[in-house]
Write a structure and sequence with these properties.
The structure is a single chain. It is built from 11 helices and 8 strands. A 3-stranded antiparallel β-sheet has the order 1-2-5. Strands 6-7-8 form a 3-stranded antiparallel β-sheet, with helices on one face. Strands 3-4 form a two-stranded antiparallel ribbon. It has about 280 residues and is an alpha+beta fold. The radius of gyration is 24 Å and the shape is elongated. About 45% of the residues lie in helices and about 20% in strands. Helix 2 crosses helix 3. Pfam families: EF_TS.
């Protein structure tokens, strides 16, 4: 008879993130020894790592770190929400975030190729995924600098770690306004900081769509320029942070809220798991 209980199975699943069947097999092989079963799962996980390469990693978390005027943000993915909320996955994500900070990484590629004690970060992640029993992946890394940086993390599900993260670089002393704008960014998902950042070809495409739509609506020829400009401005208001209506006071733009609060925003980063 197997020398372990249902509580042992639950503990090992929570510790490793491995599936029920794999945990039971490991405990059988280890005669109920938790440490030995953990090692068995880790070894089997490493052997199966290549088999997991093609799997989708649609769950996970976003984590941030701020030190003075430098902010770092990562998106770290898993295959399932079961693993995403496990302590081991969160510990691994925090380890990867710390390495991003230490290396001053601004993108995933440079961090994955960085070495720690002769071992690339990509290998550390692969081994961590092996211990968890599924594919884990560093999807994105971002870095932003400013006089100050505000961080905000949002849980889309109270039972899961944060899946939306924001870093806002700003100047000024009104941290309440900076925080409120970071929350706004999390909720309203602006694509650009200002209209100056929108690619010219995208603006031209929006202008063409606006003109074609107006003509299909049989708008008067003389009114077209004003209609087109109005619709392009509407695109900017939907997609540019400074021009969006502030979430708390939609009649005010984010730019006006910042100005009233004595804050000058200089840039932002927003990550959402899977986006």
């Amino acid at each position: 008879m197997a020398n372990y209980t249902a509580a042992d199975i639950k503990e090992l699943r929570e510790k490793t993130g491995a599936g029920m069947l794999d945990v039971k097999k490991a405990l059988d092989e280890a005669d109920g020894d938790q440490a030995k079963a953990t090692e068995i799962l880790r070894v089997k996980g490493l052997k199966g790592a290549t088999k997991r390469e093609g799997r989708s990693t649609s769950d996970g978390l976003v984590a941030t770190h701020v030190d003075g005027g430098v902010g770092t943000i990562i998106e770290f993915n898993s295959e399932t929400d079961f693993v995403a909320k496990s302590d081991k996955f969160i510990e691994l994500a925090n380890q990867v975030l710390d390495l991003a900070v230490q290396n001053g990484a601004a993108d995933a590629e440079s961090l994955l190729s960085a070495e720690v004690d002769g071992k690339p970060v990509s290998q550390i992640i692969t081994e961590g995924g092996a211990a968890l029993g599924e594919k884990v992946e560093l999807k994105r890394v971002g870095r932003i600098e400013g006089q100050k940086v505000e961080s905000y993390l949002h849980r889309t599900n109270k039972d899961l770690p944060p899946q939306v993260g924001v870093l806002l670089a700003f100047e000024g002393d009104n941290e309440t306004v900076a925080h409120d704008v970071a929350v706004h960014i999390a909720a309203m998902a602006p694509q650009y900081f200002s209209r100056d950042e929108v690619p010219a070809e995208l603006v031209e495409k929006e202008r063409q769509i606006a003109e074609e739509t107006a003509r299909n609506e049989n708008k008067p020829e003389q009114a077209l320029p004003k209609i087109i400009e109005g619709r392009v401005n509407g695109f900017f208001k939907d997609n540019c942070l400074l021009e969006q209506g502030f979430a708390k006071e939609p009649k005010k733009s984010v730019a006006s809220v910042l100005e009233e609060g004595g804050v000058k925003a200089t840039g932002f980063l927003r990550f959402r798991v899977g986006a």
